[in-house]
TrEMBL record:
Pfam families hit by this protein: HTH_20 (PF12840)
Gene Ontology molecular-function annotations: DNA binding; DNA-binding transcription factor activity
Protein biosynthesis in keyword set: no
Organism, as annotated: Halolamina salifodinae
Protein name, UniProt field: DNA-binding transcriptional ArsR family regulator
Origin superkingdom: Archaea
Length: 189
């Protein structure tokens, strides 16, 4: 006889590649991504900023972390400069990691907003399948199994990637900033 049995709904979905998941296994690398999201930095600059944030790492260790992120496709060389007979490399993140907790009571506060978002997204998903279902299904068929996922949800992954990339496009073009600047957000974000 079971002492407890309850439905456990999915509350969060993390989409990433296995390479990126491995790269993020170390919290220092998440900090590096955060530092490189807004400005290009050299290994020395990253090392100094990590020290300022309380991470005492050797510069060679910092270089290793940056190389892991670079190999995972999350960091790129943004600028090269001549420096004392050599080349100085500036790295930038092409990946943003959001690692926050919503404040207590946020679910209640956002319930109406969530209902609107769900309704609008349902309509959008229907439109995407009506107009582009063949393309979505074709990409999903070409996907390979993940070492992390026994149950494969390829089409859902493709949809989430499309929505995520659309949000990235809106962020990069300033639309999200423009919309949030027009709100009464006290944090200014």
């Amino acid at each position: 006889m079971a002492l407890l049995e309850s439905e456990v709904p999915i509350r969060e979905v993390v989409t990433t590649t296995p390479e990126k998941a491995k790269a993020l296994e170390n919290d220092v690398r998440a900090k590096v991504l955060d530092m490189l999201a807004d400005e290009g930095m050299t290994i020395k600059g990253i090392h100094e900023e990590l020290q300022r944030r309380g991470e005492e790492k050797a510069e060679t260790t910092v270089r290793h972390h940056v190389n892991v992120l670079k190999d995972a496709g999350m960091v790129e060389i943004a600028r090269l400069e001549e420096a004392g007979g050599g080349t100085r490399k500036y790295y930038r993140s092409n990946t943003r990691v959001f690692s926050y907790d919503l404040p207590e009571g946020a679910d209640e506060t956002l319930a109406g907003t969530q209902a609107t978002a769900t309704e609008e997204l349902e309509s959008l998903v229907e439109t995407l399948y009506t107009e582009h279902g063949d393309e979505i299904e074709a990409v999903a068929r070409e996907m390979k199994p993940s070492e992390y996922c026994e149950t494969q949800h390829y089409e859902e992954f493709v949809l989430r990637e499309l929505l995520n990339r659309a949000l990235i496009d809106l962020s990069e073009t300033g639309v999200l900033d423009d919309v949030s600047a027009g709100s009464d957000d006290p944090s200014g974000s």
